[in-house]
Each structure stands twice: as structure tokens, then as C-alpha cells.
Specification:
The chain is an alpha/beta fold. It has one domain: Vaccinia Virus protein VP39 (Rossmann fold). It contains 6 helices and 7 strands. β2, α2 and β3 form a beta-alpha-beta unit. It starts with a helix and ends with a helix.
Length: 222
Amino acid sequence: MTLRSRFFAMTYDRQTARVEKAGLRAYREGLLAGAAGRVLEIGAGTGLNLPCYGPAVESLTLTEPEIPMLRRLERKVGEQPPSATVLRAPAEDLPFEDDCFDVAVSTLVLCGVDDQPRSLRELRRVLRPGGQLLFIEHVRSTDPKLARFQDRMNGLNRFVVGCDCNRPTLDSIREAGFTVTQVEHTTLAKVPKFARAAIVGSATAPAGVPSRNAQLATGTQP
């Protein structure tokens, strides 16, 4: 646990308050209102999504790899509904059986994971066939000029907030085997220009995903 990670967790909600008020909270509410059944949220941070889940959620499991964030998440879960199970785990190595969730949620997480393709393969593995991946992610812009600016600024962005602002995340979702069923290309307000490009949407997990044991046996699991 570093001083930087503690400071980031301590100030995260204040840092993002203007962004939430300027439209991000509305995106969260619209995306998560229809989540139902057994729901997994990766990188749950300080629990900003918690108030957005509806009554159709049967069980809610939250993972978070960073201890300072995890502690704040545990406190928030104890203070407000819905009740949830909180676990410390990285998105690249989820401690769950195959096909055990109906919905997986990633909001502003896939930009910061160490291994995005592996994280998406894990999400695909733990989702039942036909399960949904719901996502809000800031991404590489489709405007070539802005994309080049993102490339120049990405080192600073990673140093300050610990994520990449120029990842082709929508392509990565498709390459992981998901079928994108809905996507809105948008911009986040009240953030630097190089971090504004974003996607909001859903994707469906395919049938017949190899289990973790099968992947290990064939050498396809990193």
C-alpha cells in the first residue's frame, strides 16, 4: 500500500464529483437500472455504482484490487443498500467458477487494468453463456488528431490517475469474443480533453467458452 494509493482513494469521490454531476451519474443509472440476477462488478472502487442497482439484482459481488479503495468500499456497503459481497481481487484473476454470473459490470476500469485482454477473457469465463457485460469506459478517440493528442498525454494521465486514456477498448471487447449489442459513443464533461472520449453500452457473452482448467491444459490461459 503506497501513500499515493491512499491519497487517491481518500480524494477520489471529491475529484469525480463534478464529472458525476455533469452526466456520468446519469450514465451509471441508465446502464445499471436493468441489471438483474447474479451481478459481478469489477474494480468497484469507492462504490459509486451501488445506488444505481435496481431490485432485480439477486446477488451483488464487488471486487477491488487496491486495499485503500477496498476499505472505503466495505464501509459504503455496510452503510447503504444493496447488500453485497466484497472481495479483493484483480480483474485478471477472478476467484470464481465458470458461468456463475448473469451480468458483469465495468465502469472506468478497463482503462486501468494491467492486462486488458486477460481481464476480458476472465469476464467472459465467469459469465454464463448469453450473460451481459455492461460498460462505461473512456477510450481512444475516433478523431485521428485527438487520438494523437491522447497518445502524447497518456504518460501524464497514467501518472496522475493510473489509467490509459487511449485504449481501443471496444475493439478489445469484441476480440475477447463478446458480441456488442448496444454502444453509445459519447464524451465525458468536466474532464481534460484527452480523457473525454467514452463508450457506454452492453455486450453478450458467447456460448461454449472454455473453462479455466481447459485453458490451462491447452496453454491458452496466460
